Predict the 3D structure of the following.
Amino acid sequence: MISLQEFNAMFRAVAAALAVHVLMVALIVIGTMDWQPFRQPQLTHIAIEAVIVDTSEIKKQRDEARRAQEMEDRRRQREELLRQQREREAEQKQQAEEAAARRELELEAQRKREAQDRLMKLRQQRERQLEEERQKALRELDDIKRQREEAERNRKQEQERLKQIQDIRERERQEDLERQALEQRRAQDFRAGQLATEREAYVATIASIVTGNWLRPPTARAGLRCRVQVIQIPGGEIISSSLVGRCNGDEATQRSILAAVERTGSLPYRGFEDVFTREIEFIFTYSGD
Amino acid sequence: MQNELQILDLVMQASWLVKGVMLLLLMASIASWIIIFRKRQVLNRAEKEADLFEEKFWSGTDLNALHESITTGHRKTDGMERIFESGFSEFLRMRQQGRMGPSAMVEGAQRAMRIALTRETEDLELRLSFLATVGSTSPYIGLFGTVWGIMTSFHQLANVNQATIAMVAPGISEALIATAMGLFAAIPAVIGYNRFSNQVERLDVRYDNFKEEFSSILQRQAHLLTEE
């Protein structure tokens, strides 16, 4: 059983749905209002119409037409002849007029030419005068130019002389400088030589000390040549020593050389401060007693 | 004047099968619109009532009094009220019978509520499937009408020597009306279905939550009763 309320609600829903559809249909109809109505395509019947005609009548008509045509032609020829004659007369007249006009023109031209000649002569005269004046002006200009060039030349000579003097001075200064540099270099060389000799002495001292401390093993032979590297600290204390490069002694000899360095303990330092280096390399030699 | 009736003329000229399809679609459309309006009303009312009831329920009134007011009311209960009523009635009945543990009482109430909830959901979902059906099939029905209309209009061409586009065009145009109608029926139905199924789901979740909360309250009450 459906209550009244239910029924009411249902009825309202149905009404709303129908309203929606009516609205839709209305929209569609309005939307398609500008459509063109369809026309059924129609097949048109094409008919051929025919009429029977009499030919003799046509022939007569045609003859008449031809005759009229001929008369017309003749009339036209006559008119043409007349027209040509008139044209010829007109032409002759025109020619006569043209001849008269030409004579007149020639006379006019001659007058003009004479006038032009006179004018030309006058103009030439004036041009000649102008030319002379210009020549004079040019000559004056040339004079001025020459003077100026001369002045220029003088100035240049002066400058050259000045430059020569400057050059000489420059050269003298250069020579001075060179001389000084040479002296300086010589002094440096001297100092370097001094240092080198000092270094040599240092290394030789070290080598002699080490050699002094060397206890010769029996296997060591004369002609022994070993390069020894010593690392020291300021003060001459030896930190480590090693043989570098080739050494022509046997194992025992090499050990004895290192032992000699160790025994030395510290290298000479006082007096050799200038040539002191952390690494010292010297060649240990033994050439027999 | 004649132009206005153009489209209706087209519909009238269609073959009987196409006419039938159009009629079917029109009916489907009307029915789905009726359901849309009806459902909207029902669901909106259910939401409003759920709001009201929850407010009443959580305002701290005595549950017995609330139950009284609901059962003595002249109207039929539905929605959250129905769940509450069935659960609480079951609980009272169990208590009157006595000799029952609190867990058995709560379980009975829960069962009753679950049944009520299922019924409620069923009511809410009633006829929603019709909307889904209209939404998914009416385009095909319309298409069928169109295809049929085009078939017949081409068939009529077979006996003509000089076929022109003007001879087929009206037929195709009239056939296409069926597709248009199918779409007209389908679009609102799909929109309505999506909207309403979403709404029903939300209501369902809400009812379910309420059921759980209420059963926890009942459990507390049952323990209190047995301790006494």
